[in-house]
DNA sequence: AGAATAGTGTCTATAAGACAGTATGCC
DNA sequence: GGCATACTGTCTTATAGACACTATTCT
C-alpha cells in the first residue's frame, strides 16, 4: 500500500464591498502558490492533515491562517480524489466550506499574515485556479446558493443584529438576483428564524427599520444526523 | 508527515422481500469482520484505496465484491476522519452510497462469494456495527430518504418497466409510510420523470395497470456541477 | 356480480409571487 | 412637503393532501 497524501482545503465565503460598486458582494479569499506545481497561480487555502488532527480541525487551521477569525459556519463539501489531480503524486483533498462574518475579518497587519499572497476575490470573478480548484469553487457556490434558499445559513454572513433589508441583501448577493422586499419579509418572519429585538436602526436617511436577531435555539442548517462541524473542538472527539 | 490510511466504504441499498412479511423492504448488505479490531461484528463493505484507483472506482470494487452487480446509482456520502475512529491507527474513510436493482442481485454461488460472511439486513433492523458504522448507516438513510422526496432516484431501485403502484411501493418502503395512490400518481406524471410505455401488465388479479419507464433523458438526481459518480470509468479520468 | 385495484375529479389548505397601498422618518 | 424606504394588504397561481367517485379486469 503506497502512501496517499491527505489534504484539506476550504472555500471561505464572506460579504465584502465590491471593489467597483462598494455594495456587499460574495467574496472568497485565495492564496497565491509560491512553489511548484502551479507556482504563481491562485488556489484555495489548505494544507496537509495532521495525523492527530480531525478533518474539521484541519479546516479550522486553514481559516485562521487566511482570515484570522473563527468561522460562523463550517461544513464538509466533498472529497476530491482523482488519481491525476495533482502532478506531483496522489493527493486526496477533503474540502470544506465556511462562512465568515465581515466585521470579524478586519485587516491583518501582523508579520505572520502575508497580504501579498492572500487576496479576496468577488465570487463571480475568480481567476483560473491551480489543480482542480475551479470545479471545487463552482460546486461550493452551487451548494451555498442551494442551501441559502431552504435554510437560515445566511446568518453566518451577518452580524449580531440586522435589519430585514440587510438580510435580504445577503440573499440577493448570494443568489445574484433581486428579491421582493414584501414577500421576503413575510417568509423571514414566518420561518421563525429571526426575532425582532425591539430596537430600531437610527441614523439612516429614512424611516428607521426594526432590528432583528437570529433565534439562537434554531440551527443554521439541517444536516440530518450529522450536526454542524466544529473546527475548534474542546478536546479531541469528533466524527 | 506520518501516513494516514485511506479507505472507502459503501452503503448499498436494494429492495428485497422482508423475511417476515415478504413485502419489498429497504435492505443493506453487511460483511462480517473476520479479524481484529471488531472481529465477528458486522460492518460496511469497503477496503483500502488503491494508489492508482479513483475513489468512485474503489467504491465500485466494493459493490462487485459484495453484490456482484453494477450499481444503478452511486454517490459520495461523506468522509469520516476522526482521529480515534479506528483503534489500530488513523484511518480516513470516504463513504459512498449506492442503489442496486433487485433483479440484478441474484444468488451468488461461485467460490469467490462467501455467503456466510455477507448478509442482507432490513434497513430499520441493523445490528450494532463495527467502528463508527452505525452513524454512517443512519446518515445514509437520512440522505436516501431526503433525496427520494425531491428527485427521481427511486428508479435506481426499480427495473426497466414498472407500474405506478410499484413505484409508489418503492417510495413507501424507503420513507416507511403510506402514500396516497391518487396524489402520488399525479405527482409522478407531472414530474415528467416517468413515461407510459403503452403496454399494460397482464396476469394480475385485477384491472391491468399501465406500464411506465423512466425518461432516460432526465438525470436521477441533480447534484449540481458535479454529475453522478461512475464506478467503472472507461479510462482513468474522474474528479 | 363482486372484489380489488386502476385511474379521475374536486375541494381545501398552504405557500410563493406580483404588486398596490399605507406609514414614518429625514431632508 | 417630498422622498425614500419600512411595512401591510390582497389578489393570483401553483401545489400538496384528503377523499369521493368512476373504470376495468379477473374470479
UniProtKB/TrEMBL annotation, chains A, B:
Signal peptide: none
UniProt cross-references to PROSITE patterns, sorted A to Z: NUDIX
Region feature (Disordered): 187-239
Domain called Nudix hydrolase: residue spans: 5-145
Official protein name in the record: ADP-ribose pyrophosphatase YjhB (NUDIX family)
Lineage start: Bacteria, Bacillati, Actinomycetota, Actinomycetes, Micrococcales
Amino acid at each position: 500500500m503506497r502512501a496517499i497524501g491527505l489534504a484539506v482545503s476550504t472555500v471561505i465565503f464572506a460579504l465584502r464591498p465590491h471593489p467597483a460598486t462598494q455594495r456587499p458582494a460574495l467574496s472568497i479569499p485565495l492564496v497565491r502558490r509560491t512553489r511548484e506545481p502551479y507556482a504563481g497561480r491562485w488556489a484555495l487555502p489548505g494544507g496537509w492533515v495532521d495525523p492527530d488532527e480531525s478533518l474539521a480541525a484541519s479546516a479550522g487551521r486553514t481559516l485562521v491562517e487566511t482570515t484570522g477569525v473563527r468561522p460562523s459556519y463550517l461544513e464538509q463539501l466533498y472529497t476530491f480524489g482523482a488519481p491525476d489531480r495533482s502532478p506531483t503524486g496522489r493527493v486526496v483533498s477533503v474540502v470544506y466550506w465556511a462562512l465568515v462574518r465581515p466585521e470579524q475579518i478586519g485587516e491583518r497587519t501582523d508579520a505572520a499574515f502575508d497580504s501579498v499572497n492572500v487576496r479576496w476575490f468577488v465570487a463571480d470573478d475568480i481567476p483560473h485556479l491551480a489543480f482542480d480548484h475551479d470545479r471545487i469553487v463552482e460546486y461550493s457556490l452551487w451548494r451555498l446558493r442551494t442551501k441559502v434558499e431552504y435554510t437560515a445559513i445566511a446568518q453566518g454572513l451577518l452580524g449580531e443584529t440586522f435589519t430585514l433589508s440587510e438580510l435580504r441583501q445577503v440573499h440577493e448577493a448570494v443568489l445574484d438576483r433581486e428579491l421582493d422586499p414584501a414577500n421576503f419579509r413575510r417568509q423571514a418572519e414566518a420561518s421563525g428564524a429571526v426575532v425582532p429585538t425591539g430596537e430600531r436602526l437610527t441614523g439612516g436617511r429614512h424611516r428607521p427599520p426594526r432590528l432583528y436577531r437570529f433565534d439562537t435555539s434554531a440551527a443554521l442548517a439541517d444536516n440530518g444526523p450529522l450536526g454542524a462541524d466544529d473546527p475548534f473542538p474542546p478536546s479531541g472527539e469528533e466524527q
